[in-house]
Specification:
single chain; 343 residues; five-stranded mixed beta sheet; 12 strands
Length: 343
């Protein structure tokens, strides 16, 4: 709807007689009662009704509809209304609270099918998305106080499938001793793969070295003595610092020339999982106060470390670091436990 006519505020010099008062009055009489004038009056009346309800006059962003959708009016606080026609869905928004972080998920509805899907191709490199997932796992996994490092001798395999078979045997050996954890694959400067495994408990270095020596079958006595290293992680956040250190050494994640079938760079094993401690879900309007609480706490946390807060447009999910403990304490005070909010 075009609420302003093309000639609004402009007088034709021929028609107005040089801009006289009589000509201006004539133009005003022609404009009053016209279709454009009625549209302006209707828009002003609509503005007045919505202004009393706290609504801003600006075109609505139609993220779920075609580009030529008719504009409308949107609410100033959009976090509980955006997302596309699922405001009454009791599972439109889900808030997962983990040991350290909080993940807000919003259900998406689309008027057109989204592209994508199909079979995933072979892993060629350590991607940025994989690094972010690894950091999330390291921040919220259970304590892993022991780091086990497995290296190869002078002669090492250049096929990732062989390395994965060796690790599968070592993983089963650890599992029989009740150990699980997080393993990360890296490459040394000479191009040899080596594995860091963060474990849930202690392991005997001599026994682990003998098992790894037998699995690899190198026959090199030097490998038996130096192929395994076991380190204790004393501080509670030490494992996270180790993972942060190794995850940021991207040069050790570059696949060497001639190395094939690299596969996954990291994985959890031995029954170790990262699970949410609290789940809050419900309709958008019902969960909006919780989402605002998470968003404000995340913004304060980012400002405290010199980072700019991330803007939440209200139609996609987001992740808030170091907000989990505060939200768990808030839920405990209110007696909320895995609750579904009803609008």
């Amino acid at each position: 709807m075009n609420i302003v006519p093309d000639n609004f505020g402009v007088l034709d010099s021929k028609k107005s007689g040089g801009g006289s008062a009589a000509a201006a009055k004539r133009d005003s009489e022609e404009w009053n009662g016209s279709e454009g004038h009625r549209e302006v009056l209707a828009a002003i009346e609509a503005w007045g009704r919505r202004q009393s309800q706290g609504v801003s006059v600006r075109p609505a962003r139609t993220e779920t509809g075609p580009k030529d959708s008719a504009p409308g009016l949107v609410n100033r606080r959009i976090s509980d209304r955006r997302g596309g026609g699922d405001g009454a869905d009791p599972r439109a928004v889900r808030v997962d609270v983990y040991a350290r972080d909080v993940v807000v998920k919003r259900k998406q509805t689309f008027s057109h099918p989204r592209p994508g899907g199909g079979l995933r191709g072979k892993i060629q490199r350590f991607s940025e998305a994989s690094r972010r997932r690894l950091m999330f796992i390291a921040r919220n996994v259970c304590p892993l106080p022991v780091m086990l490092t497995l290296t190869y001798p002078a002669a090492f395999p250049t096929d990732g499938e062989t390395v994965k078979r060796h690790w599968a045997c070592m993983r089963k050996w650890l599992g029989r001793r009740g150990l699980g954890g997080l393993q990360i694959l890296e490459f040394q400067g000479r191009g040899a793969p080596h594995i860091h495994a963060y474990l849930t408990g202690p392991v005997d270095k001599g026994a682990a070295a003998a098992a790894w020596y037998e699995i690899v079958g190198s026959g090199d006595e030097k490998h038996l003595r130096a192929g395994v290293r076991v380190e204790g992680i004393r501080k509670a956040h030490g494992m996270l610092m180790y993972v942060l250190k190794y995850a940021t050494k991207m040069q050790q994640k570059d696949v060497p020339d001639g190395y094939e079938n690299v596969g996954r760079f990291w994985s959890l094993f031995g029954g170790v999982k990262v699970e949410s401690l609290q789940v809050l879900e419900g309709a958008r309007a019902a969960v909006a106060p919780v989402v605002r609480l998470v968003r404000n706490a995340s913004a304060a946390r980012r400002r405290s470390v010199g980072l700019r807060p991330r803007h939440d447009w209200g139609h996609v999910g987001f992740q808030a670091w170091d907000v989990g403990p505060a939200l768990l304490a808030w839920a405990a005070r209110l007696g909320i436990n895995n609750q579904t909010f009803v609008a």
